[in-house]
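User: I've been trying to design a sequence by hand for this structure and keep getting stuck. Would you show me what you'd pick, starting by listing the structure so we're on the same page?

Assistant: Good idea, let's start from the same input. This is the structure you sent:
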């Protein structure tokens, strides 16, 4: 794959469990009608979970949670950071930029820029690296989707609720 996406905004993400592969499939749909598909293994998800929990956006929400007596300020049963996120719209398939080859992430890192912007770096087995700029919304969406899809796996990962999860979501095999 030689295609490169620079500064494209993420429109949708989808994380689904594939029991045949025993992996999670992360699909990232971009604003220019293309998507990137990446396999996530149990080991990688465990590392990713720990990294996301250490992100400052999540730490800030946990601090706000402790100052309100353990209760996040909520509107319509959604924690504050999740109010703008849509977990009900169906994921819109797009043309894949990796030519129908699904990348396999083998390592992940959180990086900070000089301006304190956090990015998630997924290092793939073919040598390619995917770098996603993490906003608070994207971080919370990833955390919530990982929590929800972990119920379908037999991985027995401890996905502690350091960050709020939406409890009133209707889930299906493919999460949106």
């Amino acid at each position: 794959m030689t295609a490169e996406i620079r500064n494209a905004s993420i429109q949708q993400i989808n994380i689904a469990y594939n029991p045949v592969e025993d992996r999670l499939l992360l699909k990232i749909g971009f604003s220019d009608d293309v998507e990137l598909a990446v396999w996530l293994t149990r080991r990688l998800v465990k590392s990713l979970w720990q990294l996301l929990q250490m992100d400052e956006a999540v730490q800030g929400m946990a601090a706000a949670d402790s100052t309100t007596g353990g209760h996040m300020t909520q509107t319509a049963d959604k924690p504050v950071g999740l109010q703008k996120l849509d977990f009900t719209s169906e994921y819109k398939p797009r043309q894949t930029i990796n030519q129908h080859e699904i990348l396999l992430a083998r390592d992940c890192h959180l990086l900070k820029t000089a301006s304190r912007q956090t990015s998630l770096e997924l290092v793939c087995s073919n040598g390619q690296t995917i770098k996603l700029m993490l906003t608070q919304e994207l971080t919370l969406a990833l955390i919530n989707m990982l929590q929800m899809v972990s119920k379908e796996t037999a991985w027995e990962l401890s996905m502690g609720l350091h960050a709020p999860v939406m409890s009133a979501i209707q889930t299906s095999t493919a999460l949106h």
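That's my pick for every position. To get oriented when you compare it with your attempt: The CA atoms of residues 24 and 40 lie 5 Å apart. Residues 10-150 form one domain.
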